[in-house]
Amino acid sequence: MTIMQTVYWLIASVGNIIALYLVNEHGSPFATGLFIFTLLYTLVGFYDLYFSHHNLNRLYPVVAYIRYFLESYRTEIQQYFIANDTEENPFNREQRTLVYQRAKNIRDTIAFGTQRNLLEENYLSLWHSMAPQTVSDDAKSVIIGGPDCLQPYTASYLNISAMSFGSLSSNAIEALNLGAKKAGCYHNSGEGGVSSYHLKHGGDLVWQVGTGLFGCRDATGKFSPTLFAKTATLPAVKMIEIKLSQGAKPGHGGVLPKAKITQEIANIRHISMDEDCISPATNPECSTPIKLLNFVQQLRELSEGKPVGFKLCIGNPAEFLSLCKAMLETGITPDFITVDGAEGGTGAAPVEFSNRLGMMCLEGLYIVHNALIGVGLRDKIRIIASGKTASSFDLLTKIAVGADCVNAARTMMMAIGCVQSRHCNNNLCPTGIATQDPARAKAVDVLQKSDRVKNFHHNTLKNFYELVGSIGLDDPDKLMPHMIKRRTSSGLLMPVSTLVPPLKANVLLDSMVSEQTLPEPWCEWWVQSNAESFYVYDHKIVHAPVLLATEANAPEINTP
Length: 560
Known about the structure:
Blueprint: H1 3-25, H2 29-50, H3 55-59, H4 64-72, H5 74-82, H6 93-104, E1 124-126, E2 142-144, E3 153-155, E4 158-160, H7 170-183, E5 187-188, H8 196-199, E6 205-209, H9 225-232, E7 237-243, E8 255-256, H10 263-269, E9 277-278, H11 289-302, E10 308-313, H12 317-330, E11 336-340, H13 351-356, H14 361-374, E12 382-386, H15 392-401, E13 405-408, H16 410-415, H17 438-441, H18 446-470, E14 484-487, E15 493-495, H19 507-511, H20 522-528
Parallel strand pairs: 4-13, 5-6, 6-7, 7-10, 10-11, 11-12, 12-13
Antiparallel strand pairs: 1-14, 2-3, 8-9, 14-15
Pfam family, one: Glu_synthase
GO molecular function, one term: glutamate synthase activity
Family: Belongs to the glutamate synthase family.
């Protein structure tokens, strides 16, 4: 027997006898309480020993529950008492504190120097200029809308990323949308469709049409042009985003747990309340590159010329080049492309998908940006970055690598009170944000939290423009990838680069009509890509480049 099994039998026998004796002799409250304790211990322990399905309960009757209790608070214990300011994931204490400070409009400075290891391999930084500039007001917005767009939209550099009603509570959606209106940015609806809470306060909306076609599907689950047009033409809806994949779970449809599906959500999405709402991994209207672009054109016409684009996480670069070939073949281009990163968040995803699939945001941006340059379409298509943006530096790096503007989700949740408890998938969010429990949702004060969204947006952009100016630029559009410095294993600071060389303007396009040789691995990916199909068999082995000592042999960098 284990020690605790021995203890159980002692309490069940000797303990009960002594407690019963004390009750009979003295009848004191202590004696009565002791007898109740030993009796309950005996009953619970007997169940554990002979009926429990858990090994721990059978070997350590009763006391095993102490482990389960402590384990249920492991995340909170680690967050509050163990982890230091820079080691938690996905957002460490330093990042969360910065968001809270800027959202509350209080002091966001630090004292006594950085806690970061500036010599850490892959540490990113900037080189400042001795001639800092000021970013003009004319350079503080981005116009989204290609040549076929009739209603172009002027966007902020920082916006609210996709979070559905269903994943978030009604009060959280209202706070985010009202905050977007106050901040002057857009609010992405998420794939759950446009609800009354998205429309109540009149904030600018990007309607995300997910693989489940929620909000524009008929009774059989197929796309309904009539239902789509009804919502897409609303004044509050400024752009349409077709979701192909999500960075936190690429290749896997969205998941809304059954516990969070109310009758209201079921009505909005046209789904059942009796099972988890799982979107298909593939959008049924976008099974090939050409079908996707035809769908883009259809939605643009149905929305009366509003900007239409799509969101994806980059995997095999050859598959994105298939999209580029389809654009050249059909003459149809999206107004924007949202690039999600593997580091992005979600309310629920399989561990393997979140941990092991997809490119990170900066890598995906680099591929998309250079591919569009190579086919001569970069000036027609805006790129939106989505994935883990907590600070102005995070915002700047994405703009520098190729994005035109950035979406943030989890930090916007933090602005309205999220504490990273990671209970988004069980309806037990302690702050009332990622839940459909009405009692919990009431904790979100819409007016107060919308101000915090506005503050976080304003203060992050303020520091972003100051950072841009500190490196000698007067316009974020002048940021380039080589301006982000990365610490190498040798300890040197080198420009941010990947195994993939940058492309010159139109080089992929020119290679289709001439003998021009493309750099590797672009050449292999371009040959493999096919406008008729997304799938490309991954057989290209990308070799690590040799670090060259002389600047003359360094890879060429695109300049404005």
